[in-house]
Amino acid sequence: MNSRQRRGVILLILSVLCALAAFAGVLVVIGDVNSKVGAEVVAYRAKGDIAPYSPLTAGQFEEVKIPKRWLSDTAVTDLGALRDKIALTALKKGSLLQSDMFVDKPQLQAGEQEIAIMIDASTGVAGKITPGAKVNILGTFKGKKPTDPDVSVVMVANARVINVGRLTPLEKDSDKKGPAEAVPITFALNTKDTQRVAYAESFAEHVRLALVAPGTDSAPNPADHFYTLEGDR
């Protein structure tokens, strides 16, 4: 082997050693990253936007892998948790599914039926009343005669809300006043209360909701069910 060949062999050996050193460096970096990031676990993110209070299904989400140490304690790792659940807030596309984003779907009890009415959004209902909440439903009525006082009536006390819809623009005649936007609210009521609500929606000048404090189940005093300005003087 002449000197030129020996130099070639030496350069080849050096090249191999450099390659091995670079490979070893990559392994060290990968090992360091893995030690800092840790093992990956399965989580789920929304495929598209999801409206608040809408039912949730597994098909609305896609699987993603995230380092376990970066995943919050409330992250959902099993889509079985969505059974009979509805979205509590609006979920944007790509949102990571968390257990505090949904609640149990309200169910009708024996003797109850659903009734939905549109509530004027200007009353501040949107975002404050959620499924499971209880409200007093009030209607304001004009006097039957010009001399009769206008009256505010508690139509139903402690009505249970089972669904809150989207803010909806309302069509109205140009010569009539009324709310520009309303929110459909669905209640679970017995037959008599359902009739009271239907009457109020049809004949009341306005229908309002008053949120009842959690844990408060007592109805207003009978004397408080009707209110007139004259009676308050």
Question: Can you put this structure into words, describing what you see?
Answer:
The chain has 233 residues and is α+β, with helices and mostly antiparallel strands. It has two domains: 40-104, Antifreeze-like/N-acetylneuraminic acid synthase C-terminal domain (Type Iii Antifreeze Protein Isoform Hplc 12, Alpha-Beta Complex); 113-232, no CATH class. Helices cover 21% and strands 30% of the residues. The chain contains two helices and eleven strands; from the N terminus they run αβββββββββαββ. Strands 5, 6, 7, 8, 9, 10 and 11 form a seven-stranded antiparallel sheet that branches. The longest helix is centred in the first third of the chain and has 35 residues, at 3-37. The chain starts with a helix and ends in a 6-residue tail after the last strand. The model has no long low-confidence stretch (mean pLDDT 80).
